[in-house]
Amino acid sequence: MPEPLAPRDLLALDRQHVWHPYGPMPGTATPLLVESASGVRLRLAEPAEGQSELVDGMSSWWSAVHGYNHPVLNDAARGQLERMSHVMFGGLTHEPGVRLAKRLVDITPEPLQHVFLADSGSVSVEVAVKMCLQYWRSVGKPAKQRLLTWRGGYHGDTWQPMSVCDPEGGMHELWQGVLPRQIFADTPPAGFDAPPDEAYAAHLRELIGRHADELAAVIVEPVVQGAGGMSFHSPGYLRVLREACDAHDVLLVLDEIATGFGRTGTLFAAEHAGIAPDVMCVGKALTGGYLTLAATLCTTAVAEGISRGELPVLAHGPTFMGNPLAAAVADASIGLLLSQDWAREVKRIESGLTEALAPAGELPGVRDVRVLGAIGVVQLDHPVDLAAATRAAVREGVWLRPFRDLIYTMPPYITADDDVARIGAAVCAAAREG
Ligand SMILES: *Cc1c(COP(=O)(O)O)cnc(C)c1O
């Protein structure tokens, strides 16, 4: 083992050399140094705001649904590590990869039968887009190359996903004119329970119809738009998209990277609408937050179309494709999820957040408070003061990472009622001080 470094030295080296998400180099903010994590708690190397442990309100960006250091996932990782941590997937296969693919086929909407394992959510979206474009090329409609999405979305940080992120006010605004130009519908009207707006549905149908000749696919996040604005919409719009895509020969891609594995109250958000996409991306909670892994699933029609083409293969093969360690943990994580009444836990957190976030509605500067499944959002009427909001949450013993005008939480499903209440109180404190 190398000599341990003192926290102060680690933070100095971090600032000097380490690039953090969406940050400048060298860094300007000092991150909290995490020493270990267990259950729903992050243990800090040095106390912050008098707290040496923080309840995690973020599930490490939607992923750690079972909490940290879980014995079942630890065993899966350890067991696989002793067999092999990795072998290439070209010309070779292995049990964890096959088991995981079968498991994903079994739990996702029935028409999805084939699985491409990718190394991150963004890559799974790249693969989804490549599948759709190549499908149309293979079946003799090469002009169908563009994508349609609605505004307010987020699909990742690599190039194709960036082109379907919200083009305004988002982090990728800088690249307008450089990115492929996609077709944008208006943001879906807000409200999971709001009756679908007929004028908006007509707008979607009209755009898809008008651009059908050049459209390869419609790609959206179903029901919850995550990093594009944490907003919820009626599942009815997904049915509108499904029908319009069918009517106009356009593929439908659902990006379930954030919504998958129970977060919105159904195993996949598409189930709220009772529809199946042609292509679907999953990631984030796939490995329970242990390792990086994502997957792109598609129907037999899409797979056969591609495999009949002039280039009858999908030309994509990440070096670490199908990583056995990640696949074994993912299979164990899905098994663990399905072995419990996860839907009841998500409902329980939904009730807890609804109660605990209600006081935020009375605060000055708060525009909206909304909860769906194990997701709670407080939207301000101004950009959040990130440092002040984070400090306020940490003082309450909770880890939150607000962005834009949003203070939000999606806790691990194992979060106990008193910790859900504590997270809620921290969100309110962050809203007051941020
Ligand atoms: C996080 C996210 C992605 C990107 O996944 P990465 O693993 O960060 O590349 C894509 N789509 C949605 C909806 C996401 O929430």
UniProtKB/TrEMBL annotation:
<keyword id="KW-0663">Pyridoxal phosphate</keyword>
<dbReference type="GO" id="GO:0030170">
    <property type="term" value="F:pyridoxal phosphate binding"/>
</dbReference>
<dbReference type="InterPro" id="IPR049704">
    <property type="entry name" value="Aminotrans_3_PPA_site"/>
</dbReference>
<comment type="subunit">
    <text>Homodimer.</text>
</comment>
<comment type="function">
    <text>Catalyzes the transfer of the alpha-amino group from S-adenosyl-L-methionine (SAM) to 7-keto-8-aminopelargonic acid (KAPA) to form 7,8-diaminopelargonic acid (DAPA). It is the only aminotransferase known to utilize SAM as an amino donor.</text>
</comment>
<dbReference type="GO" id="GO:0004015">
    <property type="term" value="F:adenosylmethionine-8-amino-7-oxononanoate transaminase activity"/>
</dbReference>
<dbReference type="InterPro" id="IPR005814">
    <property type="entry name" value="Aminotrans_3"/>
</dbReference>
<dbReference type="Pfam" id="PF00202">
    <property type="entry name" value="Aminotran_3"/>
</dbReference>
<feature type="site" description="Participates in the substrate recognition with KAPA and in a stacking interaction with the adenine ring of SAM">
    <location>
        <position position="22"/>
    </location>
</feature>
<feature type="binding site">
    <location>
        <position position="401"/>
    </location>
    <ligand>
        <name>substrate</name>
    </ligand>
</feature>
<keyword id="KW-0032">Aminotransferase</keyword>
<comment type="similarity">
    <text>Belongs to the class-III pyridoxal-phosphate-dependent aminotransferase family. BioA subfamily.</text>
</comment>
<feature type="binding site">
    <location>
        <begin position="121"/>
        <end position="122"/>
    </location>
    <ligand>
        <name>pyridoxal 5'-phosphate</name>
    </ligand>
</feature>
<feature type="binding site">
    <location>
        <position position="255"/>
    </location>
    <ligand>
        <name>pyridoxal 5'-phosphate</name>
    </ligand>
</feature>
<comment type="pathway">
    <text>Cofactor biosynthesis; biotin biosynthesis; 7,8-diaminononanoate from 8-amino-7-oxononanoate (SAM route): step 1/1.</text>
</comment>
<dbReference type="InterPro" id="IPR005815">
    <property type="entry name" value="BioA"/>
</dbReference>
<dbReference type="InterPro" id="IPR015424">
    <property type="entry name" value="PyrdxlP-dep_Trfase"/>
</dbReference>
<feature type="binding site">
    <location>
        <position position="61"/>
    </location>
    <ligand>
        <name>substrate</name>
    </ligand>
</feature>
<protein>
    <recommendedName>
        <fullName>Adenosylmethionine-8-amino-7-oxononanoate aminotransferase</fullName>
        <ecNumber>2.6.1.62</ecNumber>
    </recommendedName>
</protein>
<feature type="binding site">
    <location>
        <begin position="318"/>
        <end position="319"/>
    </location>
    <ligand>
        <name>pyridoxal 5'-phosphate</name>
    </ligand>
</feature>
<keyword id="KW-0093">Biotin biosynthesis</keyword>
<feature type="binding site">
    <location>
        <position position="317"/>
    </location>
    <ligand>
        <name>substrate</name>
    </ligand>
</feature>
<keyword id="KW-0963">Cytoplasm</keyword>
<dbReference type="InterPro" id="IPR015421">
    <property type="entry name" value="PyrdxlP-dep_Trfase_major"/>
</dbReference>
<feature type="binding site">
    <location>
        <position position="154"/>
    </location>
    <ligand>
        <name>substrate</name>
    </ligand>
</feature>
<keyword id="KW-0949">S-adenosyl-L-methionine</keyword>
<dbReference type="InterPro" id="IPR015422">
    <property type="entry name" value="PyrdxlP-dep_Trfase_small"/>
</dbReference>
<feature type="modified residue" description="N6-(pyridoxal phosphate)lysine">
    <location>
        <position position="284"/>
    </location>
</feature>
<feature type="binding site">
    <location>
        <position position="284"/>
    </location>
    <ligand>
        <name>substrate</name>
    </ligand>
</feature>
<dbReference type="GO" id="GO:0009102">
    <property type="term" value="P:biotin biosynthetic process"/>
</dbReference>
<dbReference type="GO" id="GO:0005737">
    <property type="term" value="C:cytoplasm"/>
</dbReference>
<keyword id="KW-0808">Transferase</keyword>
